[in-house]
């Protein structure tokens, strides 16, 4: 194909890849492709900077971002992988994230200190943060432009036409652009989903939730809500992590950007997610009134938001979940939220996006070289992304079911936390191998897994444990077992499984705070040496060795 082609308005250049949407997903992919010589067109109906949520990072996200940065030689992506780097490059606007914190509430009652959980993000290995998205997204957009992507803001696509040579993107005013391939990263209102009628109706996901959110000032730090004994006080302050206030069939989030002394950002991201079948949307209340209406049901949550002030208009949604019957076609791909969405409970949005970009990018680079943009080339990315949606759906659905009983919830929590960690160890192994010899095959080998989309996608034992958890929660919801019976079944499996670490907290039923000390780590090390599944032993010991090496050099791994 020639590099130029006559069009009505717009540009005569034929781009290799057009990307719809310049949020963090589209801009990151654009930066990767442009850095590696691809002619990229990055279109967006809006402009930067702009408000966005999806601010909480998880260790898997950080390793995936570092992987993309190293694999595709875009060092700027590493800026988003640590709190220190983000603050240094973009300014002190980001919150620290030292843990995932969960507090279960019951209507009209003070929060019970025995019904809390905290899982620490290990500071030596991963330095998580709360991303201030209007800055990170604009930053990635400008990184993409620096590497040569052509950006067009305030460009609303009215029509997308495909032919044997490529795709034409047009505005209502008649401006047109040509490309050989198009990635839709525009989100829920995806032009390609609409054109090809890709949305499943009804949505296939089991989980149901709607949401209300905003940024606020003067949000009271979570720790000031309680005066508790030392044994009921978590190792890390609640407000220095992502706070989840759980209640039956719903939860509030509190994500502070102002949660450390050096912050110059007075904002806190707050939101409420509800099952609309239990809590129908009110036609008589504004979103702000509805938010405070539900907060008022729980005394400690209400106190956290007393005197807090919103800084923008509230957002209120209908059901959040939507799904697509396919993510890939000849010359097109639906990326991340253009394809589907579940719920922000486990901060999977950016993580899933980064994982999809990592697998999509190398295939697109090959396709640009040989001209084969067929659907089959991208079949794995489609299956993997659909798997990310489906497994997250079953996990969040089980979580909402379990919120009515703390004991059952802790079983869900432990399988989530270990699965997320095992997946992180697995990805880290691939990156450590790459550091040693620079072979991209290490990353491709990670795609050879029987359960794409599962946190730990190549371990049959974990897959069985996960399936059992989902089954027990569904049986409890159906009234076939009690919450105690369901929890007993899951805990029996956790305690007997040699692929679930012992002493650390992943299998210990009564342990509320999983931020282990030296004594616990020593016990876990002995368990690894004598009883652990060989795969778990290899992964955990390997990551520990890399952590020690990094500490001796005065740095973190990621």
UniProtKB/TrEMBL annotation:
Gene3D superfamilies per UniProt: FAD/NAD(P)-binding domain
Residues annotated as transmembrane: none
Keyword Oxidoreductase applies: yes
Record's keyword terms, sorted: Monooxygenase, Oxidoreductase
InterPro entries xrefs: FAD/NAD-bd_sf, Flavin-dep_Halogenase_NPB, Flavin_halogenase
Superkingdom: Bacteria
Sample GO molecular function, one term: monooxygenase activity
Family classification: Belongs to the flavin-dependent halogenase family. Bacterial tryptophan halogenase subfamily.
The protein's name: Tryptophan 7-halogenase
Phylogenetic placement of the source organism: Bacteria, Bacillati, Actinomycetota, Actinomycetes, Kitasatosporales
């Amino acid at each position: 194909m020639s590099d130029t082609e006559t069009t009505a308005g717009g540009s005569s250049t034929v781009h290799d890849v057009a990307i719809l949407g310049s949020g963090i997903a589209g801009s990151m992919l654009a930066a990767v492709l442009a850095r590696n010589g691809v002619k990229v067109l990055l279109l967006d109906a809006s402009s930067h900077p702009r408000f966005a949520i999806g601010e909480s990072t998880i260790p898997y996200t950080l390793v995936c971002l570092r992987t993309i940065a190293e694999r595709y030689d875009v060092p700027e992506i590493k800026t988003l992988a640590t709190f220190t780097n983000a603050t240094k490059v973009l300014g002190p606007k980001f919150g620290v994230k030292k843990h995932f914190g969960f507090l279960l509430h019951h209507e009209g009652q003070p929060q019970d200190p025995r019904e809390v959980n905290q899982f620490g993000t290990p500071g030596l290995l991963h330095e998580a943060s709360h991303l201030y998205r209007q800055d990170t997204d604009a930053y990635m957009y400008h990184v993409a432009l620096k590497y040569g992507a052509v950006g067009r803001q305030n460009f609303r696509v009215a029509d997308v036409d495909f032919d044997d040579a490529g795709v034409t993107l047009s505005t209502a005013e008649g401006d047109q652009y040509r490309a050989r391939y198009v990635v839709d990263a525009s989100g829920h209102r995806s032009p390609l989903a609409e054109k090809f009628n890709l949305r499943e109706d009804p949505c296939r996901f089991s989980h149901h939730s709607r949401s209300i959110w905003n940024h606020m000032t003067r949000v009271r730090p979570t720790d000031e809500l309680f005066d508790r004994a030392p044994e009921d006080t978590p190792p890390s302050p609640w407000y220095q992590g992502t706070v989840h206030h759980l209640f039956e069939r719903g939860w509030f989030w509190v994500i502070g950007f102002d949660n450390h002394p050096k912050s110059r950002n007075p904002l806190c991201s707050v939101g409420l997610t509800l099952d609309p079948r239990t809590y129908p949307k009110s036609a008589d209340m504004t979103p702000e009134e509805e938010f405070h209406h539900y907060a008022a049901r729980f005394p400690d949550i209400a106190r956290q938001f007393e005197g807090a002030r919103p800084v923008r208009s509230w957002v209120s949604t209908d059901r959040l979940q939507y799904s697509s019957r396919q993510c890939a076609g000849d010359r097109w791909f639906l990326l991340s939220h253009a394809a589907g969405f579940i719920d922000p409970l486990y901060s999977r949005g950016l993580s899933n996006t980064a994982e999809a970009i990592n697998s999509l990018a190398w295939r697109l680079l090959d396709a640009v070289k040989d001209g084969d943009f067929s659907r089959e080339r991208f079949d794995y990315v489609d299956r993997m992304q659909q798997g990310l949606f489906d497994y997250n759906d079953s996990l969040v659905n089980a979580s909402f079911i379990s919120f009515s009983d703390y004991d059952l919830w802790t079983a869900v929590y432990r399988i989530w936390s270990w699965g997320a960690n095992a997946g992180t160890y697995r990805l880290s192994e691939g990156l450590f191998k790459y550091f040693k010899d620079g072979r991209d095959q290490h990353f491709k080998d990670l795609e050879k897994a029987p359960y794409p989309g599962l946190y730990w996608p190549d371990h049959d034992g974990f897959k069985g444990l996960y399936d059992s958890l989902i089954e027990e929660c569904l049986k409890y919801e159906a009234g076939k077992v009690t919450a105690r019976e369901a929890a007993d079944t899951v805990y029996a499996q956790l305690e007997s499984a040699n692929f679930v670490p012992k002493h650390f907290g992943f299998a210990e039923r009564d342990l509320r705070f999983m931020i282990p000390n030296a004594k616990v780590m020593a016990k876990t090390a002995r368990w690894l040496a004598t009883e652990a599944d060989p795969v778990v032993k290899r992964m955990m010991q390997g990551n520990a060795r890399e952590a020690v090496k990094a500490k001796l050099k005065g740095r973190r791994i990621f």
